[in-house]
Amino acid sequence: MSEKYTQMYKELGMDIEKHNELLNALMQIYPEFFLKQDNRPKEMEYFDYVMSEIHGKRIEEILKKKKQGKPLVGTFCIFVPEEIVVGADGACYGLCGGADFSIPDAERDLPRNICPLIKSAYGFKVQRTCPYTQSSDFIYGETSCEAKKKTWELLNELHPTHVMHIPQMKREKEKELWKSEVYDFKKHIEKVIDRELTFEELKKGIEIINKKREAMQRLDRLRGMYPDVVPISGKDGLLINQISFYDDPERFTKKVHELCDELEERIKDKKSVVSKETPRIMVIGTPMAPPNWKLHHIVETTGGVIINEEACIGHRYYKDNIDVENAKTIDDLMDRMLERYMKIDCACFTPNDERIEKIIQMYKERKADGIIYYSLSFCHTYNVESKKVIDRLQAENIPVLKIESDYSMEDVGQIKTRVEAFLESVSFRKQANSFKGI
Ligand code: BJ8
């Protein structure tokens, strides 16, 4: 792929040699992690194709928009309202921060003991190996955690970076503050298109993203709500969640529905990717940006299956939509947007108890067998919050395992051993429950 797009990469100011190294590394693990899985749904072909062209065709598409004066915005957080960018017919995408590859370059500027997601994303800019970062008019960072907000100051020296102030509490005064941040974001987008967004454009942007989220909700139900059948692996489910941050939203929606049609057939025919006895695991915690597939791969090659991710690359991203009914003005739409975004239950908020209730509800609805609490190393918000969450899960008699990790492969053996022991005890409990008819 790389050679075909060399000219484009040159124009984006990328380090072509280093980028080739990155792609070669990815192309080595992708077949192993994804293509070798047994019994994959046929409609996964589209998502494999998207991955194969993620630094190719999709970049061509977004650059076409740029030539037409449409905004291209890179983000790191689901708090940045993509509806506004899509309303302006631009592209809003999550910037990768899931690879070890870029971390050594980031560590020349950043401390070693901060979250790998931030180091990885910053390192891609230092290396000039991410065509999304290179294409963007600007990056929109936020203040959700200490490491992020200070890194944006450094990133701004390399690429135009705006910072959105995310409140840390959900009182009325914080909501007002956040509202003004969203209006500022809208103004930044309007600067790129050199005019104000109309009511119809904003409404259309919201509707496009609402439809995308509805498709993802449908996929989520099919993945997890049928205790006897798991029609798609957790790895493929995660991959689709990751792709949702890059692909054209309308095409993605259509393709997710096509996949869901196939999964419905599979459920009808009881065509599962795992046996009925396989422990069904929910993963909760910090986001897994591509190509962070480590935990899913470990679990699914150790006898478990993952049926849902309670994370921002997952359920937290698509669980709520924006209600546009009877909205008559731009301010109405902005208010509805605010309402929806304030439902995000990220650990950067204090208190954040609604997250705990949501996890328990999700676990029960899915009749899951256990939960893995996943936290990236040095993520203080999710790490500290794990105490409250785990205490409560244990009080509910829900089996839970906490894993803290980064992107290196050094701890794979150790995690595998812990996951193995966890799955064994969960399996035992599952068998005992089925014997008792629970
Ligand atoms: S809404 S989860 S995407 S902030 S970068 S907090 S892992 S130490 S990503 Fe997040 Fe928005 Fe919240 Fe979601 Fe921890 Fe790392 Fe910080 Fe992180």
Description:
This protein has 19 helices and eight strands. It has 438 residues and is α/β, with parallel strands linked by helices. It has two domains: 3-203, Rossmann fold (3-Layer(aba) Sandwich), CATH 3.40.50; 205-320 and 346-436, Rossmann fold (3-Layer(aba) Sandwich). The strands form two sheets. It has a four-stranded parallel sheet, with helices on both faces. The longest helix has 26 residues, at 199-224. The structure holds Double cubane cluster. Double cubane cluster is lined by residues 77-79, 115, 117-118, 144-145, 147-148, 286-287, 312, 344, 346, 348, 376, 379, 381-382. The site of Double cubane cluster has 20 residues, from helix 7, helix 9 and helix 18.
**Average pLDDT:** 96
Number of strands: 8
Strand adjacency order, main sheet = 2-1-3-4
Radius of gyration: 21 Å
* Ligand inventory: Double cubane cluster
Per CATH, the architecture of the largest domain is 3-Layer(aba) Sandwich
Number of helices: 19
CATH fold naming of the largest domain: Rossmann fold
Sequence of secondary-structure elements = HHHHEHEHHHEHEHHHHEHEHHHEHEH
Q: Classify the secondary structure makeup into a structural class.
A: alpha/beta
Main sheet attributes: strand count, strand direction, barrel closure: 4 strands, parallel
Low-pLDDT parts are: none
Strand content: 5-15%
Total separate domains = 2
Helix content: 40-55%
In short:
The protein is of the alpha/beta class.
